[in-house]
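re: ur msg from earlier - yeah i can do the alpha-D-galactopyranose complex, just paste it... oh wait u already did. ok heres what im feeding in:
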Amino acid sequence: MAIIFNEQTKTITLHTKNTSYQMKIGNLSYLLHLYYGPSIGDEDMNYQVMQYDRGFSGNPYESRNARTFSLDAQPQEFSTQQQGDFRTASIEVVNTDGSYSYHGKALDYKISQGKYQLDTLPCVFANDKDTADSLEITLFDPVSSVKVVLLYGVFEEADIITRAVKVVNQGQGSIHLRKIMSVCLDFLNGADMDLVSLPGRYGQERQVERQPMTHHIHAIGSVRGSSSHQQNPFLILCDREASEDYGRCYGFSLMYSGNFLAEAELDQYDQLRLVMGINPKQFYYELKPGETFEGPEAVMAFSEHGFTGLSHLYHDFYRTNLCRSKFVKDVQRPVLINSWEAAFMDFDDVKLVEIAKAAKNMGVELLVMDDGWFGKRDDDNSGLGDWFVNENKIKCGLHKLVEQINQLGMKFGIWFEPEMVSEDSDLYRAHPDWAMEIPGRHAVRSRNQIALDMSRLEVQDYLIERINAILDDANIYYVKWDINRSLADIWSNVLPAEKQGEVYHRYILGLYRVMDEIILTHPDILFEGCSGGGGRYDPAMLHYYPQYWVSDNNNPIDRLKLHYGTSFVYPTCTMGAHISDSGKFVPLETKAVVAMCGTFGYELDATHLSKKEQELCKKQSDLFRKYYHITFEGDFYRLTNPFKPGNMTAWQHVTKDKRESLLSVVVTNLTFNGPQEYIRAKGLDPKAMYSVNGGKELHSGSALMNAGLPINREVPEYSAFQFHLARKGK
Ligand code: GLA
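and the outut:
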């Protein structure tokens, strides 16, 4: 059992292969946090918590005259409200009597085998071979009768600990939640820590930013109704010296696709508190007597081996314990071509078949019909919500079109944007009240579309019925599920005034229900998520879709940064990456090397390519399939940082058994008569001998990792190299 309760010391320790996490039912039954980091065995870590009079600090009433116990200085497992702790709270509740107060004390605990699940929100899961255990600790406030249940999942081999939270109103009247954080982690000394996050914008998602902790609350989050382009629900707290390969790093990844907030606060004593959960903005959630609220799951990992060590933990775990799609490991993902940048909305069935025929010569296996096939949709001002095939465009009907594509030996995919409605649509004309518009006000327009009220059951049912009908009408192999605006005008016509503060969250719950009913009922369809590019690329979405469109920005040089940042937490096999016309001066070969970092496909008009270009694409598609086991199952290494000055960007995939590796280099800026450049490999077996691209000459893993490979000089701009390293012998 990976969870140990020590009766004598009242400590509870969670053990993974390399880490320990400890809490204690301490003084006056407060639940204290004692440790998270490299394994410490069964040691009681309470010795580090010093009790002394800090001057003018609040002390719980029950500690009487002892001024040394202040919650403002104690490391807590779940920071509470109005108990003299003035740091950021994990909960803010308005009690039935109107008071803002929560005094939760540890009441009991339960340890069980297996991984807990939540009723309303997606969670990671345990596979048969995993050792996973769960812990539930109940905090109880006897005055309000509000129970907080802290949930922990411990994945021993994976070195992963998850947390989630439930609030149960056991009182007689309604209470309101204004803030509920899923994770709270206190560090006794955080002055020398840095915070790494993944901010961005449309077309430039998940860039990497690092900031030293200073004495204020460093907040990252989203209030856009989705996890957003602008921030990602992931952050790292690390040693100031931590780098790609060295240093202590803590990762926090939130399984939630709506508004989120992470606050890292360095306090007056240099203690550091991290909380993460649903963003409290416009969050006011009523719990009637007997009702339970669930907060989303946070997935935590710790590594002493820098960002790479931490990324590997997340990559391995998210590849196996996040998404149940058969495309995760049992079925290879097809090379696809998407119609968007080829034709935008200007296509018909004949054009699609032409693209498919040309793409077939390029080794493409799947044609995706993107936006424009439904309702009245010749531009992006109309049609959303009318999920009926537009037979003026698809004259032969969907069924026949798919048959034609199938007859070419190819599969067929389709695009939806379920959560949106155009004002110029039959759906809006029939049900204007289904859209999120505040009465008496005009809704904010964004791409001329309005969000549907996903919290509403009829809306959910309509989408489930309509989309399932399309999916069941034809032989559809793939679905791209898009959302192309941020939510404003948060409002539901069916909720009373006092419940409008629940709409942001209820939207997400409704969305997950729709996804459950469409995605989980079509286990043979490959789903890809998309949000104006990669604006909702989060682990909850990756619970449903094995892949996500990284960005609408297909420029291969920008993609180097996009893939680099995304890879901090998400495995490269989740990254939708295509070759398109974007990047005029970048050779097709280089575009292919970049797209091979992810799921690989095309986003261009294949009929415009010359025979020679089509042949080249065929070779690239074949190479993608040849290296699939390396790039989809291997360990990923970031060899250079594209945010730093340098002449090339390089990355590498290495199979788990270290027998094969694919090392990719893109030359971004080689100057005339510049210094000789070398690229050092990582992750190889130092003693083994490797061939490079099938050559006769062998180099040891040690040579390749310590001296590296020389990069050709005086190559054309934006050249790329792929080195396939193969171990000789056993
Ligand atoms: C978004 C997506 C694109 C494309 C368009 C269609 O921008 O990111 O890939 O599907 O929508 O409208």
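cool cool. Residues 340, 370-371, 415, 482, 484, 530, 532-533, 549, 552 surround alpha-D-galactopyranose (CB under 6 Å). ping me if u need the other ligands too
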